[in-house]
């Protein structure tokens, strides 16, 4: 039949395991936060993508303007060739209009070409960044997948430990359990500790002979470390 302090010591082992798992879960959650370099990379790719889109729009717009002007030129040219205009003034006016349209067309063509060249130039920087982003996102997603699996495993482990703990706690002296729980909160998760070479294993202070050599676990009162106040168990 285990004594109260032995039962508390067993409970302490379970609580230490639970604490370690909780710490590992927290660490795992931190590890799956999106890395800052990936966030920055995504932002760079996003803003470059907007620039590229706007260059494409400029090019498309200029090209459609070229098309409209070309149609006007062709219509004017047809009129000129039709022989319907007989007044030399009208003919001269139409010719001058065609010349003006030709110059407008050249300006639009230059604009379209400039947008295309700038697009292609920036694409040399943009494409490698897109590839890098895909690669880094893939790596990060893999990391997240592993972490999720690990977290699920830890959650299951924790659930089992919680179950075992409540079974053991239900079979325990309520007063002893209360003292234990309070110490656990105040003493950084360690309420019961062992003695090695007449020293407390939690705070490492050497214990007075009366404490270190007290009768083994027999008495109903608990031994406490005079230095850190934790319960002591002689093993
Ligand atoms: Zn101590």
TrEMBL record:
Coiled coil: 91-164
Pfam families: CT398_CC, Zn_ribbon_9
Domain C4-type zinc ribbon: 199-232
Keywords: Coiled coil
Domain CT398-like coiled coil hairpin: start-end pairs: 40-187
Superkingdom of the source species: Bacteria
Protein name: Uncharacterized protein
Organism of this sequence: Caldilineaceae bacterium SB0662_bin_9
Top-level taxonomy: Bacteria, Bacillati, Chloroflexota, Caldilineae, Caldilineales
